[in-house]
Amino acid sequence: MAETVSGVYPCYQNQFKIGAVGAQTLNTIADCTTFGVSFNDGVEEWTPYSSEGWTRRLKTAKSITITVSAKRNVGDAGNDFVAGLAFVNGRQSEADFEWDFPDGTTVKLSDAVINLTALGAGDSTAVAPLEFEILSNGKPTVTLAA
Question: Which pTM does this prediction carry?
């Protein structure tokens, strides 16, 4: 990763890596153009008599979905790894994924589910796409910047 930054920064300074579950080395994914991150929370609600009609809430669940748009780049280790998941199911569609923030914070999603949504098809003059989602599968490991 590049040097740690402070203040505002361009999105491309986020770095993303992927690889087989338990691999010692994760690879970047060439030619990614967009990363979208959504946090999905489960919130339970109830309205006890003592709250005089006001709802109480407690966040009881959390997950992360990262949506990626890229161009298919044959020969790039990260890009080839993701494309290779197109025709598998079950545990074979899992991978380790790491998100490195510019401030030095890292988020690792172990055993993340990779869901391919587009591979190599489009207009005749378009560059072949590689589009997929990374779905958290359990609690991530978050290491805050020092």
Answer: 0.87
Q: What residues have CB less than 8 Å from 51, skipping those under 6 apart?
A: none
Which residue from 18, 133, 124 is spatially nearest to 79, judged by alpha carbons?
Answer: 18
The pLDDT mean for the chain works out to 94
Q: What are the structural domain ranges in the chain?
A: 11-143
45-58 pLDDT, tens digit per residue, is 999 999 999 999 99
The backbone torsions φ and ψ at residue 83, rounded to the nearest 5 degrees and listed phi first, read -60, -35
Rounded-to-integer distance, Cα 75 and Cα 40, Å: 34
- DSSP letter for each residue of the chain: ------S---GGGSEEEEESTT-S--EE-TTEEEEEEEEEEEEEEE--GGGTTPPEEEEEEEEEEEEEEEE--TT-HHHHHHHTTTT--GGGGEEEEEEE-TTS-EEEEEEEEEEEEEES-S-TTSPPEEEEEEE--SPPEEE---
Sign of the Cα pseudo-torsion (89, 66, 76, 143, in order): negative
Q: Which residues contact 50 (CB under 8 A, 6 or more apart)?
A: none
CATH topology classification for 11-143: Pnp Oxidase; Chain A (2.30.110)
